[in-house]
Design goal:
Layout (H helix, E strand, L loop, with lengths): L1 H27 L2 H5 L7 H19 L4 H24 L6 H25 L3 H12 L8 H17 L2 H5 L14
Helix pairs in contact: 1-3, 1-4, 3-4, 3-5, 3-7, 4-5, 5-6, 6-7
């Protein structure tokens, strides 16, 4: 009986988080990022964009309770499972994966702390710098202000979305390159 009671909710959350994660991945893979804004189309560049979009939804769900809080945790778990799977697909050995996962987790949490701080302080300059430092550390990235505009638009867009709709598995991210980005 307990399995039936708790298993049904778990399966529902799994279906919702799978749907949300698919939408996050689709948003992170928008070709415009790579073709127009010079985001590196490499495993690390794709990690950066996926991290950013996971952060954006996490930022929206921050401080929620109940199902939304549970979904936020499952989304983080799904993200790191996806990263683990990707490392293995790239040919990283079973011995090397845990070390790389620790490094990527530190990268994710460091980046998201910088993004959250810049958004909290409404400091566009800090957000431009953080995005540039993380996505194109090898050069001065002239497109960083455009991605900053996108991030701010996404935060505004996500905050306007109904929490019940998100908890049902529907989230919408802006299209890159729209509205003056």
């Amino acid at each position: 009986m307990f399995k039936r009671l708790f298993g049904a909710r778990s399966q529902t959350n799994r279906e919702v988080t799978d749907a949300l994660y698919e939408q996050i991945v689709a948003a992170a893979r928008q070709p415009y990022f790579y073709s127009h804004w010079n985001v590196p189309d490499t495993p690390l560049g794709r990690f950066e964009m996926l991290s950013l979009h996971v952060f954006l939804l996490q930022h929206r769900l921050h401080g929620t309770q109940g199902k939304a809080h549970d979904i936020a945790q499952v989304l983080i778990d799904e993200f790191f499972l996806d990263v683990d799977h990707s490392l293995r697909e790239l040919g990283i050995s079973d011995v090397g994966v845990p070390k790389r996962m620790k490094r990527l987790a530190r990268m994710y949490y460091g980046r998201t702390a910088a993004y959250a701080d810049a958004l909290e302080r409404q400091d566009d300059g800090a957000l431009v710098a953080a995005l540039g430092r993380n996505i194109r550390p090898d050069e001065e990235w002239l497109e960083s202000p455009r991605l900053t505009t996108y991030v701010k638009m996404a935060v505004q867009n996500l905050s306007a979305q109904d929490l019940d709709a998100i908890c049902a598995g529907s989230v919408k991210f802006p299209r890159a390159g729209e509205q003056g980005q």
